[in-house]
Amino acid sequence: MGHDYSEATSSGDESSAPRDVNAASEIDVLAVCATKLSALPRESAHRALSYLNDMFGYAARSERSESGGDSSPRPGRASERFADFAELFDAANPTDGLDRVLIGAYWHQVIQGSDDFESQSVNTDLKNLGHPSTNITRDLDNLMNRVPRPVMQVRKSGPSQQARKRYKLTREGVRAAEEMIARTQNG
User: Fold this and answer.
1) Domain annotation covers residue 138
2) Measuring CA to CA, which residue among 174, 42, 155, 43 is closest to residue 109?
3) 88: left (phi over 0), alpha (psi -120 to 50) or beta
4) Does the residue 35 lie in any domain?
5) Is residue 170 part of a domain?
6) CB 168 within 8 A of CB 117
7) Each residue's pLDDT expressed in tens, for the chain with a length of 187 residues
């Protein structure tokens, strides 16, 4: 993957792609990657690709296509509309404890850009706004038991019931949070 980009193109633009690209080498790398990734479960393959994209500084395809080719924030993107958790919480206006937890999770994962979130950090943010969960683990378990499931547990560190757990919003969870925000902003 180490291309020599020092050779200028015919236009004299140093930043353009090189004329001499070893396509066979790239195809070999793609074949190996495809073989290795196809042996993994879908979620594992996605994590591996995300890691490689981050490692080499590439934007994900959906970010490039939605923003016209780069990964800069789009106008109206939630991360631009809400300066802090309090603004998001106010905009979403969650009516019950589970919706509050869902909005807290959305803040950490989508707006802050985390791959996943810890239950304690969501509850700390809720406490700061005066809306703590009386039992954050139970609330997240209840969300995981919904169909379709808006949240899933992705990691647990430690053997006890009090072990730190990490969670992730599913597409359904992101959609539900965004619908909650849109509902209050549209009417």
Assistant:
1) yes
2) 174
3) alpha
4) no
5) yes
6) yes
7) 444 433 433 444 444 444 456 777 777 777 787 788 778 777 777 677 765 665 555 544 444 334 444 333 333 445 557 889 999 999 999 999 999 999 999 999 999 999 999 999 999 999 999 999 999 999 999 999 999 999 999 998 877 777 788 999 999 999 999 999 998 777 6
